[in-house]
Amino acid sequence: xxxxxxxxxxxxxxxxxxxxxxxxxxxxxxxxxxxxxxxxxxxxxxxxxxxxxxxxxxxxxxxxxxxxxxxxxxxxxxxxxxxxxxxxxxxxxxxxxxxxxxxxxxxxxxxxxxxxxxxxxxxxxxxxxxxxxxxxxxxxxxxxxxxxxxxxxxxxxxxxxxxxxxxxxxxxxxxxxxxxxxxxxxxxxxxxxxxxxxxxxxxxxxxxxxxxxxxxxxxxxxxxxxxxxxxxxxxxxxxxxxxxxxxxxxxxxxxxxxxxxxxxxxxxxxxxxxxxxxxxxxxxxxxxxxxxxxxxxxxxxxxxxxxxxxxxxxxxxxxxxxxxxxxxxxxxxxxxxxxxxxxxxxxxxxxxxxxxxxxxxxxxxxxxxxxxxxxxxxxxxxxxxxxxx
Amino acid sequence: xxxxxxxxxxxxxxxxxxxxxxxxxxxxxxxxxxxxxxxxxxxxxxxxxxxxxxxxxxxxxxxxxxxxxxxxxxxxxxxxxxxxxxxxxxxxxxxxxxxxxxxxxxxxxxxxxxxxxxxxxxxxxxxxxxxxxxxxxxxxxxxxxxxxxxxxxxxxxxxxxxxxxxxxxxxxxxxxxxxxxxxxxxxxxxxxxxxxxxxxxxxxxxxxxxxxxxxxxxxxxxxxxxxxxxxxxxxxxxxxxxxxxxxxxxxxxxxxxxxxxxxxxxxxxxxxxxxxxxxxxxxxx
Lengths: 389, 285
What we know:
- The complex is a heterodimer of chains A (about 400) and B (about 280).
- Chain A has about 400 residues and is α/β, with parallel strands linked by helices.
- Helices cover about 45% and strands about 20% of the residues of chain A.
- In chain A, about 50% of the residues are buried.
- By secondary structure, chain B is mainly α.
- Chain B is built from 11 helices and 2 strands, in the order ααααββααααααα.
- In chain B, β1 and β2 form a beta hairpin.
- Chains A and B meet through β8, α8 and α9 of A and α1, β2 and α10 of B.
């Protein structure tokens, strides 16, 4: 009898233990970003930073909302930048995995493809991505589920407008735009052709077919127009080839970019004259003075056991590391993990001071500090930090 | 404008030579063995990635890395021939089906191994040679030279050697060639090895100029096919000329018309030429 009682007692203890583990529920975060593919620059770092933050939160014991303990579970799917694939993945996240918080997408073509499906879940999910086209829908009826995690190009706080203002101050008269003939290129045309016209800079736009590798003809054509700067596309997969071919043939040596990384400039630093690029944060410089950046870099190296990707890291400004912490904070303040609308309300009123100082405007679009990096021939770098009002 | 057009004629010829090397593979395989290999672009991709791996990861000098890369590509061609292509001789539909399957397999394997993120090699020969206002990258000139030597060398080898004559005999009448002592299965294998090795060389040269992606072969096999048809299927020098003409049409067309539709210009001219010369510019009737 005593043995039976002992066994029952042991069973009770084990059952209680299991129950207490079970009590720490899981909040599922879904992610649809291009982790690979020609446009992976818009997605890879977000997927890296999100996984790191989720790991940190969980290792710290999770978080508590309404007296209940929670951990995070990230379901990160690689869209490869393919809209159809992303649509299937979002369907899986929402309907099978029952995800309420979706990180991404960063790519406009992916967003436009998943939007009609996501609209059906308005009020039931929160989707926050960096896609430029989110700007067109955010704050409109049936799109309460949307938040945009990247700076907008135009307006008084627009990074693109602030950068173009620098060109105006420098006396630039002519700029050549070379975009890929796809959704992203059309977005860029919509924004920048009008902006240059408004600022009194003569702009010329050429498109190239997606998949193009040899740009020598279009570059030669552009060179005869003698622009002050070349403004090439938005994806590094093309920008590497464009910058190389333009500088190698000595046709064009000044570049202006509002998307893409510093990498193509650095690779061709001895052949170009100037490479001006919007960098949400120039980590090489920020690491020297910001303890949060130092901690992030150290955590990244420890977690992934590899070198820190300084060239990709600036793209962690969209739906990434900080945003996981913001979401956790918002859920705590809202006192719920199940009501995306209540969580969104908290996010809208929050200013988060992490790797970036992030807040959202009245529509739900992010406003954060950023850097403009000017690379000159030979590799000299000048960084200007801009703090939008 | 004259400088611009002249520059693009030269540039188009160089790019066209890249099409030419794939066209040569197509024309050799189809013209001699009767096998349709639309997957040649994938063997080009294999050559390109192999060169990247050997040069960037194994740190071999580029010129050294090119040789094993061609052999790797040829080895993949040999296996594909033994497993699939040899059963598709003179059967266009079967050849097409096998090609589509292989394209899918090779691309998926490359995606798994290398991901779809573009890779760029260190510059092999940076800088350009200036001809007036025209700047021609040195590496492009080297690539052009190598391709011309390979195509002319192939032509001479086929025209002047016993093996070449055997190949032509095989193309005309396989049974008669066999009766005359030509070991036809071995010849077929040799042609497949050579054409896929050539595609590997094209890939190795491509890697020195452009960034690499698993889907890169698709574009080039289409261009190679256009060049081969333009030059005339079965004509070795026609493949080079077909590629060069196609490259020039695309480059010069892009000067006067929008660059966004560059691929269409070559196709439009191809259709126009085929209306008057259905066997291509250098093909026999």
